[in-house]
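Please fill in the sequence for the structure shown.

STRUCTURE ENCODING:
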C-alpha cells in the first residue's frame, strides 16, 4: 500500500496543516494586483492587520519565517558585527549560516534556562568594537521556544533583556514564529510580547494553517528598507494576494483555536510521560510542542519512529529525542491513536 493511501496522524510539525475551506474560498476570490509595484490590496490589508495586531507601525508579508528573520537581521546590522542569540534558538540552529551569508554578521550563542537567557549573561557578552572584536548590534529572542519543547519564556525575563538592549543602544528582534501559542499559554497579549522587540516575525503557515507565509512587523522605515531586502532575496511576489487572503483568514479565524493544540500536547505528554524508555516532565509542556528523551532496550529512536509509522503515527527525531507537534489536523482521535500505539509498543 502506498503511503498516500494511509490516513496518518501526522505529528511531525504544525507546518503540515492544510488550508481551511474558508481559506480556499478566500484564495479563489482574492482581489489581486502586482505587489512588487504596490498594487495588491489584499496583501496591503494583511500587512496592516498584522501590524495592528502586534502594535507596530508597519508589516511585511514574506514567503517564510526564515526570510522574515533574515530580512530583520540584515536591516538591523552591519557587516563585521555580532548578534546575541540563545544557543538552542531556531535562528542559531537552523538559520545561522543565513546570517553569515546574508548579513555577514556572526552569532554569539548564550545558554539559557528553557529559552530564558540570564540578563546579566547578556550584558557580559555585549562587545565593544576593537581591532580584535566585533561590535554587538542586535539581540534575538524566541517565544514560544521551539527547541525547548515549546517553552514560554517569561515576560519578566524578556523585559530585563530589553532594558539591557536600551542601556547599550542595541536592537532586539523577536522570533515569534509561534507567538500566539505562547500568548494563549501565558494569557499575556501578543502586543505585550511585541513591545520587547524592535521587530517581530510570526508564522502564518504553522498552527494558524495558512498554506504559505510569515509576517515581519516593526517601524515604518525598517519595513520600507526590509521590503528592498526582501526583493533582493528574491521574495518580491506579484499577484500574491492569493496567498495573503488565507493569511487574513488565519488572523481572523484561527488564533483562538491554537488553545486546543496546547491542550492536546499536554494530554499527550501526560499520557506517555511514565511509559518505559520515555524521559519527559509533562509539567514542562506549555504549548503545542512535546520533545522527550527516548532510551528503550527494544528500539533506537529511528526504529521506534518506524514502528510508530506502521501504526500510522508520524513524528520526527530531534537532538537526543523525539518531537511531537499538535495542530489543527491532529484531533483527539489522533492523540488517542498515538497514546495507544505507545502503549502497545513500549510495554
Ligand atoms: C519555523 C520557525 C522559523 C522559520 O519559519 P519557516 O517558515 O519554516 O521558514 C523560525 N523560527 C522558529 C522558532 C520556527 O519555529
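FILLED IN BY: designer on duty
SEQUENCE:
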Amino acid at each position: 500500500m502506498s503511503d498516500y493511501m494511509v490516513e496518518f496522524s501526522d505529528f511531525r510539525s504544525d507546518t503540515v496543516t492544510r488550508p481551511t475551506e474558508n481559506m480556499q474560498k478566500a484564495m479563489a476570490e482574492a482581489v489581486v494586483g502586482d505587489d512588487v509595484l504596490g498594487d495588491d490590496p489584499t496583501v496591503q490589508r494583511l500587512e496592516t492587520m498584522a501590524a495592528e495586531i502586534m502594535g507596530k507601525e508597519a508589516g511585511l508579508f514574506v514567503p517564510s519565517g526564515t526570510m522574515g528573520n533574515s530580512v530583520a537581521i540584515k536591516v538591523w546590522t552591519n557587516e563585521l558585527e555580532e548578534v546575541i542569540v540563545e544557543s538552542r534558538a531556531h535562528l542559531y540552529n537552523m538559520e545561522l549560516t543565513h546570517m553569515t551569508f546574508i548579513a555577514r554578521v556572526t552569532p554569539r550563542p548564550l545558554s539559557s534556562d528553557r529559552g530564558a537567557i540570564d540578563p546579566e549573561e547578556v550584558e557580559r557578552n555585549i562587545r565593544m568594537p576593537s581591532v580584535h572584536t566585533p561590535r554587538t548590534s542586535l539581540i534575538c529572542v524566541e517565544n514560544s521556544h521551539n527547541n525547548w519543547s515549546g517553552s514560554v519564556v517569561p515576560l519578566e525575563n524578556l523585559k530585563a533583556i530589553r532594558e539591557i538592549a536600551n542601556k547599550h543602544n542595541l536592537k532586539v528582534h523577536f522570533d515569534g514564529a509561534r507567538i500566539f501559542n505562547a500568548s494563549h499559554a501565558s494569557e499575556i497579549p501578543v502586543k505585550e510580547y511585541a513591545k520587547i522587540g524592535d521587530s517581530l516575525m510570526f508564522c502564518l503557515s504553522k498552527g494558524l494553517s495558512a498554506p504559505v507565509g510569515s509576517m515581519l512587523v516593526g517601524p515604518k522605515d525598517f519595513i520600507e528598507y526590509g521590503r528592498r531586502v526582501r526583493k533582493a532575496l528574491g521574495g518580491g511576489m506579484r499577484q500574491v494576494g492569493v496567498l495573503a487572503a488565507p493569511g487574513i483568514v488565519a488572523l481572523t479565524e484561527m488564533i483562538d483555536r491554537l488553545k486546543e493544540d496546547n491542550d492536546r500536547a499536554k494530554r499527550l505528554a501526560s499520557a506517555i510521560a511514565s511509559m518505559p524508555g520515555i524521559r519527559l516532565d509533562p509539567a514542562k509542556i506549555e504549548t503545542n510542542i512535546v520533545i522527550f528523551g527516548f532510551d528503550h532496550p527494544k528500539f533506537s529512536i529511528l526504529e521506534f519512529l518506524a514502528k510508530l509509522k506502521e501504526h500510522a503515527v508520524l513524528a520526527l527525531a530531534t537532538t537526543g529525542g523525539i518531537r511531537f507537534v499538535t495542530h489543527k489536523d491532529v484531533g483527539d482521535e489522533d492523540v488517542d491513536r498515538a497514546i495507544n500505539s505507545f502503549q502497545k509498543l513500549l510495554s
